[in-house]
Fold these 3 entries.
Entry 1:
Amino acid sequence: MKLIVEQLLNGLTIGSFYSLIALGYSMVYGVMKLINFAHGDFFTFGSYLGYTLLVMGTAFATSTLGVWGGMIAAMLVAAIGSGTLGILVERIAYRPIYPTGRLPAVVSALGASIFIQNSIMVIWGARPHAYTSEVVPDYIMNIFGLRINLLQIIILALSFFLMGVLYYVIQKTTFGAAIRASALDRETAALMGINIKLIIFFIFALGPALGGTAGVMVGIYYRKISFIMGWNYGLKAFTATILGGIGNIHGAMIGGLILGVLEMLGSTYVSTAYKDVFVFLVLILVLIFRPTGILGEKIAEKV
Amino acid sequence: MMVNSENRKANKFNTKGNWFVIIVIVSFLLFPLVIKNDYIIDVAFFFGIYTLLGLSLNIVLGEVGLFDLGHMGFAAIGAYTTAILNTTFGIPVLVLIPVSAIAAAIFAYLVCSPIIHLKGDYLCIVTIGMGEIIRLTLLNNPFGLTGGPNGVFGICFPSIGNLLVIDSCVKFYYYIWIIIGLTVIALIRLQNSRIGRAWNYVREDVIAAEASGIDVRYYKLLAFVIGAALAGVAGNIYATKLMIVSPESFTFMESCLLFCIVLIGGMGSIPGVFIGAAAISFFPEIFQAFAQYRMLIFGAVMVIMMMFRPGGAWPRQRGKIQTESIIIRAEKSEI
Amino acid sequence: MNRIKLILIVIVILSVCLSINVLAQQAPIVIGLQTPLTGSEAIEGEMASRSVETAARMVNEKGGVLGGRMIKIEVVDDACQPRAGALAAMKLVSMREVVASISTYGSSVTQPASDIYEKFKKVNIAYGATGTGLSERGLKYFFRTCGRTDTQGIFFAEEVVPYFGAKKVAIMHDNTSFALGLAEETRNALLAAKTADLVYFDAITPGESDYTVPLTKLRETNPDLFYFTGYFPEAGLIVRQARQIGIDATFVGGDAAINEDFKRIAGLEYAAGCYQTQEALIQHFTNPEAMEFKAKYQEVYGDLPSSPWPVYAADALMVLAEAIDKSGSTDSDVLVDYLKNKMVEYPSITGPIGFDEKGDRVGTGINLYKVNADGSDSIVQR
């Protein structure tokens, strides 16, 4: 029983990271209908920015602000950095292309992803780097006989907090309504007087920013970062988004958590080697019976 | 008067077009005789493999517009079928070409039937999932068949008895390009047939196609099956050239590259696939000198390519039948 | 006028002949290096390339080979992929001036590459491919300066397990060619030697960050010894996560698992107390060749290679230079004969080298290393 709870917690932790990245991914995807392959690389970029600030900057941030302050500073820097990169990429690689169709935009996204990934390799080197222990807090607590890392709790809480804030913004504010409207139908939303350019700016800044923050959190929690880590996370984010339902930002949140738990189930009860096979099989089954994802799509079918 | 001159123009275009095709074919045939460098001939061979794979994906993605990012999985099935049957039972490789094609086709049929009704991006993630499932299963060596990460090695060369053994770079080059030539002829005929037109109709507007009485599900499935069969053949040839198959050759990244080949060349365009495959295979070799920056430049080029030619390097020319028929009708009425 | 013209022509011809002669004498001996410069193993490729350049410099500064000819390295990238590996081998083979090749890292890439070198009769020395099957194919031109995985597996079962007095062993790998090979050899050796029970045998997916789920599963089997045969990026994460969820078993890494990067990724507090079955880390060698190599490498690049394989690549170059020089020829068959029959205990960077009939190296030993609290390593058992 204790084991199941512990494994569940592990699965949820993995899932919360997926959710964070999927959130940013789904924002772009929902409104622009663009599969942003480069999203995983915004995430990587953010974690490298955090690394540069905390570790390479001779722990300046940590010594002045303390370990927790350093973490928050790193997250802010990563968010701003990734957000800026997102807007740049949108302007250079996507804006000239998506009027011509969705598929060329996918190729462009793939090209942008390869470019960013290899730029990171050229700038920071091919070796995997690590957030050193001086900048990372490490307390292990013992609650009801379960060994829980304080960082785990903080990450989970932070993820839910960010998701909650995003939920509030999207569901309860006018701006959020504008975003949802654009996700439903971009052209009509523009006709209704919604400033689409502003919306696009916002999502391409916020989505990657969320990804960058997630990158710092992954760096702090797992400590190891490498220039290829974005690829795998990007694919999981895409899977989570589809699992939850396209265009459904909350679906991405739930999708990520479910994905983490599914991975845990596959690893524990099937075999760690076949974990991903299990996850994809479940995904295919879900899509066969619910073709628009778990929470469903909120788009009317045009006839 | 007008019609006559237009007629002459149409004729001239045809002749020019024919000359172009003849020049291309002759240069392909003479290529290994002029360039005696085995390494370059090998690169040309892999250019051929990518072309064949690109042509197979073109059917699914280019003609019908189905979002397939797991296509290497079918090639893997073909390659491993050849590898396992050849090394275990000694069945000659040439006999295994249709066997691999059928194996991949059956697999595609079984797997795609339940999911063929999915739309766009959902289909995308499912095909990604399928590709990964195939690769991971091959990696884990179920029943000791697939050799795990080391793969299966010791695959024989294609041969007809002792008479014709294809074992040198030059012979492999001709082997694959002749197969590609035959495939292209078949594909062009397919493009101009009822099936081809139905496919294009499905891509343009699924609902109108359905309303016109086209069995959309059947045509989509047909596209997957034929595309998978062709990919299986490519897998077979790949296996006999390298003499070893391993899961590393069939990753998600490779499927993405195939996707890029079709899009860079132009969706549904057969000459476009050649251009796309050339770009993908020659590019990394040409830029070997840049070492670390190789992939960086590659990514940048992909973005720039889409910026300036989003329709592809050689977009599919449509409406030629329309123009010709107008000329023919006008001709007839003049007389 | 005619006489002047004649004298001018003679001068021109003489100078041309002289320069051809000089050029021919100074024509460098080109040795190919096939290595992953891009892709997930880019770091190994970078270190190998640097090590081989350093070794070449060492040879050239001593006067080169064959009476003054300098060694020049031709590097080709194979991205650690089988197809790219085959193409890279083809590229080196098609360059007439390339005498021999040092190729490559990764058993699944080395296999098709070595087939091509064999077909075109070029000596190829692998430096980072320990798959046992590679040298069992009866190839004439294939050599390797690294060891084989079966020796390591036997060492673990027969020496390491009794050293710790362990009764239950857990083996974890990552389904790559090398790690799976080592894991299986170790399992076979354990079964044969019957020194302990195998309670866990499974693979993790490399490239991920979170292994708490499979580690929790491992913890429940209660092993005394935890052997991880994969690579250092995952090893670092696994050790830390294992300790955090309460696995107290002694952690032993295979030879790709523990290096300087591992200690950084795991964090010193978790890396201390880990053990490793290892062939050779350059830091521990004190023989003159190794000291010279370390000094020269550090002077240009500032650090040392963090895994054993790049140093084996450097050794491959030293061995080739020696073979070319002592046999007086660059012909492949002559070199093969020298390497297999006449090279006995040649003092290379990693110790005395010879080659047996299969091309395997004679003269490597596996040691058990321990990571100390301050981050340094010490040999515990030979």
Entry 2:
Amino acid sequence: MTHDIVVDLGYGDAGKGTVVDWLCSPANGGGPVPAVVRFNGGAQAAHNVVTPDGRHHTFAQFGSGTFHAGVLTHLSRYVLVDPLALVAEADHLVALGVPDALDRLTVDRRALLTTPYHRAANRAREIARGAARHGSCGVGIGETAAYALAYEDDAPRVGDCADPRVLCRKLTLVRDRLSEELGELQAPLVAACVEAFRAFAGSVRLVDDAYLPRLLRRGRVVFEGAQGVLLDEWQGFHPYTTWSTTTFANAEALLAEAGLAGSARRLGVLRTYATRHGPGPFVTEDTALTAGLPDRHNSHGQWQGAFRVGHFDAVAIRYALEVSGGADALALTHLDVAQARADLRICRAYEIDDQRVERLPVGPAGDLDRQARLARRLLAARPVCGRVAGGWIETVGEALDLPVVLGSFGPTAADKRELRVRAGRGAAA
Amino acid sequence: MGSGRWSTDVFDAAARYRAARGVSAFAYSDGGATAVHPSLDPYGVTRRESRDSDEHPESVAIAVLFDVTGSMRTVPRALQARLPELLGLLLRKGYVTHPQILFGAIGDATCDWAPLQIGQFESDNRMDDDLGRILLEGGGGGQKTESYELAMYFMARHTSIDCQERRGRRGYLFLIGDEMPYARVKAPEVRRLIGDEMVEDLPVEAIVAELTRKYDVYYILPHGSSYVGDHEVLGRWRRLLGQNVIQLDDLDAACETIALTVGLGEDAIDLGEGLDHLREYGSRSGASVSRALATIAADRAMVAVSAVPGDLGTGASGGIVRL
């Protein structure tokens, strides 16, 4: 029994949802998966899953395996939980014939709560930044994380939802502190939030730290990452990042606590081309591709900004692999698009100030000044792109020196192909 | 990544969770109400009046204010169910000829969205309407404090009752709950919730002193609530109200307890007679009421000793022995 950690090696949107859905489906030969565990991000996640019978859901806080009967979701302490969005999402799942998503959910009491005050502050700040915006999703993830750093003891947590007085006090503090900083926030009354958050606590099973180790011993678990490594709070291209650790690190920490350190398969997810939502460095961006490859589930976001498309960026992905400690295998999505578009290229190097760069320098995690300098350099970089000779699966496997174990040729689990890994490197269909 | 496409409307979410659990709120709250009903909103109210009239020439003001958070949510239900009995006892047994009853609800001004709800003094079943409009809170438990002091402030300064003003007889005020008042009536809360231009906070002791000039104030602590037997809560109220702290082991007996307390206060009955009346009305709450009122009845009997020594033999002790 091997647990999987699924992480997007790019800027997000590579197809974690469809990969997790497939891992949880009977088609996958690894055996049944009883649970999906989330280990970063929060309600900003938008993991699209389409079932073979045509139902579509954008998973935000429920695990992307939820379409499969009985598959549980656990939100670990690293998740920023938004109880308001959660129930709206559950209702949509009910409409799609999944009546028991809330019953299949467990949430760690220590997880932080995203509140309407965080959300309102997030939007107020992005508006104030004007053209210099960071590409925030506008759901309050950054504010939630920043507030918890500044006021660790006062940060509202999931467990507080069961204690209305504590919750009320903490919510009032969040509102007052953020209002003091940003002016009056467009957000509902504290009492209204308390009522809704209490209802959340009454509807969802809240668990303590003993729960996950038990779950991990009970059967195969898929750790579903959010966002992408290139958006990582410490290793991404500051300040165009998220307030979340998007590498394998949090999942590994949870496994280590259960005595299972290093035992999981680390699966990196990639598209055959690159995408980026919102502003920030995107060296291989190609406006022709942006125009020619509109995304089924992604478009211009009110808060995130434009959805941009570019060529496969082996330089950036190698950087992502290096800063996240490497992966064991890859899942490659949008192979159907690659088959249809002969103009997709692969970028193996950048030109920066007339110098050829194949490897981006990796610094110690957490030096944000350094990351900001790197981001500025990347904004001036030009891609050196080449044709993909032979198949995409082989080309990507060789460029990254990793086996591609899953190929996706369409949105549903039925469009996935499990690939036989060759000895050495690369893979064949 | 994406843009958070699920609704984050707070009211929507509360309703969705309730629907998911098949739970519904109560009365006015059932309609999805999220704010104090206008007829119960204390903001800008000059005064609630209990007035004599041709029909009710000797009105007696009786105010019942209860905590509507947490475990106390069931109080309005119990009161509504027993209201006919309360009126029946008061009127038919002649404890009070012309009662005028006001209902109100107490929340927490630092948090709840209905920190104070105050109905009108009514002589008939219109008081039932006020009960039905009360918004029930979801909160409760935790810090042991609710905004009782704000309710007491309103009753002290924004009610006008003929029984006291014209005849020098105090009205009755019952506070039902399981927590303590905050230490001070806070000026910003008074401005925000009642609309008075208040500049400085007021210690709760000062407002109790004002209030008890107008009303006999009783605090009823029902058993089964969080802080029964809690010395801090009981002690706090005893320091404020002395003997008039009533511990009640059956919440359903709240109406009977109020009725008999008024009967005792009006010197219309002693406890034994009151308990007889309860039995007569088929109430099963006699034992609870007896335990709850033993102290008050004994106190009144003591008063009676000095005034009418011959009454000693029919005092409270006899009633208690029977149970």
Entry 3:
Amino acid sequence: MNRYAEIAVTTNFSFLRGASHPHEFALAAQAHNLDAIGIADRNTLAGVVRAYEALREIKEDTGKAPKLLVGARLVFVDGTPEILAYPSDRTAYGRLCRLLSEGKLRAPKGECLLTLEDLLKWQEGLLLVLMPPHPGRTATEIGPPAKSWNQNLARKQGGSGVIPKEKFAKTLLASSQELEALLIKLKHAAPGRVWLGAFMPYRGDDRRRLKNWQRIAHAAGVPLIATNDVLYHTPERRELQDVLTCIREHLTLEAAGRLLEANAERYLKSPDEMARLFRDAPEAVAETIRFAERITFSLDQLQYHYPDEPVPKGKTADQHLADLTWAGAVERYPGGIPDSVRETLCKELALIKKMQIAHYFLTVYDLVCFAKSRGILCQGRGSAANSAVCFVLGITNVDPTEIDLLFERFVSEERREPPDIDVDFEHERREEVIQYIYQRYGPHRAALTAARICYRSRSAIREVGKVFGLSEDITARLASSVWGSRDDELKASEVRQGRFDPENLVIARAVRYANQIIGFPRHLSQHVGGLVLSNDRLDEIVPIGPATMKDRFFIEWDKDDIDALRMMKVDVLALGMLTCIRKAFALIEKHEHKRLNLAAVPREDPAVYAMLQKADAIGVFQVESRAQMNMLPRLKPKTFYDLVIEVAIVRPGPIQGDMVHPYLRRRSGQEAVTYESPAPEHGPPDELHAVLDKTLGVPLFQEQAMKLAIVAAKFTPAEANGLRRAMATFRNIGTIDRFRRKLIEGMVARGYRREFAERCYRQIEGFGSYGFPESHAAAFAHLVYVSAWIKCFHPAAFACALLNSQPMGFYAPAEIVRDARAHGVEVRPVDVNFSEWDNTLERGANGALALRLGFRQIGGFSQAWAAKLVGARGNGYADMEKLIHRAGLPKRALIILAEADSFGSLGIDRRTALWRLRRISEPQALPLFEAQHVEEQEPEELAPLPTMPPSEHVLVDYEMLRLSLRAHLMEFLRDLFAAEGVLSCAEIGTAPDGVHAAAAGIVLVRQMPGEAGVVFVTLSDETGMCNVVVWPKLVERFRREVMSARLMLVEGRVQRSPEGIVHLVAERITDRTVELERLSEDYGAALSGRVRAGQYVHCHPRNERVIPRSRDFH
Amino acid sequence: MTLADARAIVPNLEVVEADEAADFHLLERIADWCGRFTPFVALDPPCALLLDITGVAHLFDGEAALLDQIRAELAQRGFAVRGAIAGTAAAARALARYQNGVVAPPQKEAELIARLPVEALFLDPATTHALRRAGLKTIGQVAERRRSELTARFGSQMVFMLDHALGRVELPITPRLPTPDYRAERQFAEPVITHEGILATLASLACSLAAVMEKQGLGARRLEAVFFRSDGAVRCIAIETAAPTRDAGIIARLFREKIDALADPLDPGFGFDTIRLSASRTERVEACPSDFAAEAEQQKELHFLIDRLAARFGSERVLLFQPNNTHIPEAAFVLVPAQSAKPTQDAWVAVRSWGEAPRRPLRIFANPESVDVMAETPEGPPRQFRWRHALHTVRRVEGPERIAMEWWRHETPQPTRDYFRIEDEQGCRFWLYREGIYGRETLAPRWFLQGLFA
């Protein structure tokens, strides 16, 4: 029987070259019964973990799998042909990582620049296979980096030196003599570890070429080794590989010509096939087996050590953690530690000790302590975070006595998974935490994880379309017909929606190959906050490269890879709401002298729940979206756990699994709480009771769904986890199907109703990429409660903090301000004499706190200007001349201040201020004389300008501040619409169910969630908001109006739910944007071009502008 | 609004790239056309023309009638037109935009202008914006402000524009220059009859034409000679060149070739009283330093040869081989008319390395011929084959060279070809291929002979 090991496999982690996934190669290698498979991607190890995982799974399934050889194909800039480098052992692997890191650190992001010298420096222990260039290919593919690339920066980044220009070669050393000389050179450096790679490309003269290689190898005294220089796992992938080549070279298939491979032979071949091809050199095939046997390195050997910094000398990590835990417990429970908590803590500590993860908890604790010492708010979440240990350490604020979360359910022994704690920090100050980590662990021991950016349907169709010569126009239309689900394949229906014939050959092909490359990695980027820490040099575990930010690095592996290798990472995430809460706490302390922190907010205040039940939730964390606001009156949260459910229920999982309505019915008592049960012979009828108890028998959380699979379908915990992962990574269609059958049939076989089983499956499917576990929901629910509490008792501080933390949340400033005013907060305009950069609080006449808008609300105004203006203010500016003189602002800044009408305290209105300011000349930029240089101007006798009508003031307010304190735009149009019989939003809100009515308003939000095609529009007028539902059919008919109207008139039917939630179901939509032109005598002429131009269709609601900013006022 | 946004609103939006150069060209052509009304036409890009009609209106029955005629005729040609007549260019421009069709009577003009929005002053957007914010929304409102007040804020240029619009200052329009005409002609008191006379005239016309083109840095790709016979008959003869040329000697020779080769010879009858030579298509000549070695000179001579042959036999009959970038052997070259051949980026494949036999035969059949072959499965070389009834026994063979078809050109998958270079016992060399990979694509591969090595 022939044996063979393929050592030259290029996967799709060699971007736009390899045309198969690592796992596809793994399966093919298994099918061909290869001895080993060597993954060698171009200057990267990014794909090896995927192959490792796949082979491990194969081994688990079948008991046997080809050996994985971990290596890299080194591509050089100095004309050296490519060399496959395989580390023979763990230390050599470290050297390969160092070599690649070095090449990456001196190169622009995403590239790796290597020379033969680098290899010779790190070659110890590496097995080197020189790959002669393919016939006809003599040019190097990596040239010197672009001029814009800063070499000095590269040097600073710790790369060892820069490659001098003259080293870069345009041509490969490809002649027989050159190859021979190179082999001899390599052999001297690495005796016994050099091979000459051979392959049979079907070029006609293969046998002659092989003879020649035999001769060269013999002359150089190195063995010849057979490969097929594989690019894909089956010959059917040739077409896709051609497409990838074209994408890479920015060519169409028509123009690519001989750049494409001549045939489909570069697939993974069987041992018999290889033996036949190499019948003239059987020793080369046999050599592959010897080669594979030389390699003892496996990724299993990556002994990963967590940093032990936080542990004081003389103590073990477990001891230290236990000490901290008990100390923290005493603090948390000043009245004595409850027995249940004590018991839980003991259990958890024992488990942590057993799993040897104490270091991990200590590191997270260390970060949290640092953040606390700096006054940075933070909160942990994630599976391991929901432990009593984390609570008493102050990592989380969810009291395990309040909500019963089982730690071992999430950190399970058998799952062998590293624990997971994500820590959210204030979004404006997360950077400080990251800096701290770098300082503490140094750049060699801390790096970001990678985020693998893959092709998604839109990017795929765009690029593949280009390859087929489709114009930008057509591909953009195809791409834009994909709504929502971006990982899904482009379906024929969607193609049709873009008004294309899916039968059209070119389009059908473009779509077919686009679908094939969905999920192919495109490039590696850095993860936003996933940090890998290590006790040893990180760059000996995995290659690292420079991140966008200076002195930041990221590794080549993403979070799944890290999981697979059981490495630990901390997610240092940014959360806007924490910034907002901290700012609110600071304001409350300053003005009301109350010290608060996340843990100190009074719990379970009924007033807070009463407010939430009314859906009075603008600005409240997580529950302010329209869907959430509709859910609040239905769910009527009364306790903390209700908030946990509220957070988790409006998610794709429960919605797709159709779990929302059953839950609501049970909650309101319309439906009895029952538990699905297996047939009596298979188990106790209440086996799901324990799993679904808290959610009334309806699975809502990810953990419940997993647990369900375990209890009801008898999955092993590892399988349940595999199921979740298969859902998340998604592309693994074969695996998904297997799980699907196993789950549904497993449940049905045990006597569950098929319908219930299918619903459960759908829900797990929905959890896939948006998994929302209870542990996260609980952490978020705490912030929901805290933010709601602030809003309830300190509305001014809440609004102020929200505005000062922008951008965050769901609503635009206008809504936040309006909501604050509705809650009785006085809001005062921006004023040169009172405002600061941030919004501030002032004592109002009645003693209540009033909100003073800050300069940050003015579009186009800079913080530096605000600082100058406030700094020179002293006891206030008496008149405009003094202000111009003292503040020394550029004319542009003054004009913006005037446009924003912020000279109110000087008694000068917007129009007059602007006219006066236009006259001053730009101060000369001589700082020394700055003050004097604003020349005194002759006083001017002016005829009065026409007064600005109020409606025009409002329009300009919106343009400059995106809000107006004077009036709502709709007030000016009320008579007009009233005459047409149009109701106000408030009137719609009280209209009876089923009546026909019309409403008009400014469009605040338009959303098209999911694939269904329903559009939700929120209108606003001077009386409030109105929720409009537009069904898909109507969307098609009134698409233009739906997408582009700023002022929309909707006629339709009022729909009122029992809980009093009112929707206007649209039947007819009219774009009345032109009416805005009435608001300014003849403002229309200037505005029309812009207003009619429509707004950004896909923009976040908080960024929508009612009146676009004029681009030309300075 | 971005294109993506527009498309979200109107999914089947048709998109055409703006072509400013073409727009400008069109405007120029309309300006040319307007030459029939007045010689003084000025461009006001991107989309306006200014016509100075001083003293011409009476030719068209008065100003109103002239305006109507221009508008009507342009509208007939498919343009949307706005127009107005006023005392100054700025006033006319403002009125055309905002009071389409108006002929402003001199005494009423200022009043008409005053009612227009400030946009009609065509000031920079910042100034317009400032005026609107100040509540000065018509030209009249602006005009009421004191001059010093305006100057202090917006500079004297703005005040000048205002005065210009109000007819207080005159600014003459600058009519555009006519484009040069690459044309030379000669009239004769005594009509020329002789062949030599005609050729000599063409040669001297070529000299003057060449001089004009040289000044503009142009060369001719197409030249037309027009012969006006004294009895009124006109004959036009055209030549084309492969590269832009302005060498008078070459031009004259090309015409001589052409005239000599005419199937229907030039008949001077009683003689030509006018001969005109014009360059109807010109291109920029890349100035190349004259000492640029022999290659350029060679190239020039080759072009000249091509032009001469084309002048004699017709340009579609002088062909050139060009490489085509593909693996498919029969498509690896194309024949194109030599005169219109563009230099290509593609290189010929090296089919022969030093010391080796060529990899491609000298002769490739347009239609490969089916042959019966004895060969080993799966992919062994032929042992014997029968071509055109003759049996050939293979003595030497090399291969296979496997070439897959260009899948994107075909609706259904095409079989892959395995090419073999073969020498039979007589020493004849053939190029055979097997169609279809055994086992993967077919179970019964077919064989073809596609070429013969010399």
